[in-house]
């Protein structure tokens, strides 16, 4: 796997920006970020870099090495492992977990969320060989004293569809807004439906959302649209899978023969929007 140059320049996409931003300029990737992406500790995660473009994505979200960054619903830890390497030396990474009181969750899921909060700091410390005190976590039903208004960035990676289908979006996004500093920003990466996709396909149940709907939702909930990147675009994805985005890698649900797996692998992971929003006064 090719290692990144510390001076690498990334040309962020310039097409089809909504709102006040008309174009995106080339962005220099922070040397500390390039070093984290290339770190040998990421050896098992690096295969997905070709689809997830973590260097370009985090640079577009303007994540800096000394920032306090919240990762919402960190799940399997793919981004947590990278963010731990990047933020551990000088910054702060906080795992932000679902409010477990939602009626969408059964008792097992609620217990799992609580357990995830407890385990997260130690897990990230182990993954990144960084001090555990650089990491923390909490669920959005119990925000610790002094946390509101202290976050530079919050990242919501491929999770907006779950927030919508579980009827959590309003509560969780508003809670995240309160955590941000006055000029703080939320970066959203999300599976992207076609602009004319029907509501039945874009209600969250298939994993895909319309870009315009996500932008409007965030604006209604107190954010200004800063701009978008096409770093995670994939024109090979028709974004019309009857069983949803999980048809594609890495899940490939229902792919029972080698020919189907090969066809889906050639398509790659989903077409995704990459959007940046600033907290509105």
Explain this structure.
It comes from Novosphingobium hassiacum. This is Putative methyltransferase. This protein starts with 8 loop residues before the first strand and ends with a strand. It has helices at 31-37, 49-52, 54-60, 78-87, 107-128, 160-165, 169-179, 211-220, 258-267, and strands at 9-10, 27-28, 68-72, 92-97, 135-139, 151-157, 180-191, 223-229, 272-279. The protein is an alpha/beta fold and 281 residues long. Helix 1 packs across helix 4 (78-87) and helix 4 (78-87) packs across helix 5 (107-128). The strands form two sheets. Strands 5-4-3-6-7-9-8 form a seven-stranded mixed beta sheet, with helices on both faces. The chain has a two-stranded antiparallel sheet with strand order 1-2. Mean pLDDT is 91; it is low at 1-23. The chain is built from nine helices and nine strands. It is globular and about 50 Å long. It is 31% helix and 19% strand. It has one domain: Rossmann fold, CATH 3.40.50. Strand 3 (68-72), helix 4 and strand 4 (92-97) form a beta-alpha-beta unit.
What class, by secondary structure content?
Answer: alpha/beta
pLDDT under 50 segments (min length 5)? Answer: 1-23
Helix content: 25-40%
CATH topology: Rossmann fold
Instruction: Give the strand tally.
Output: 9
Average pLDDT score: 91
Biggest sheet record? 7 strands, mixed
Shape: globular
Q: Measured on Cα atoms, how large is the radius of gyration? A: 18 Å
| CATH-defined superfamily | Vaccinia Virus protein VP39
The number of helical segments is 9
Report how far apart the termini are: 44 Å
Task: Please state roughly what percent of the residues sit in beta strands, choosing from under 5%, 5-15%, 15-25%, 25-35%, 35-45% or over 45%.
Answer: 15-25%
Secondary-structure arrangement, i.e. CATH architecture: 3-Layer(aba) Sandwich
InterPro entries: S-AdoMet-dep_MeTrfase_Alr7345, SAM-dependent_MTases_sf
GO molecular function, one term: methyltransferase activity
Protein name: Putative methyltransferase
Keywords: Methyltransferase, Signal, Transferase
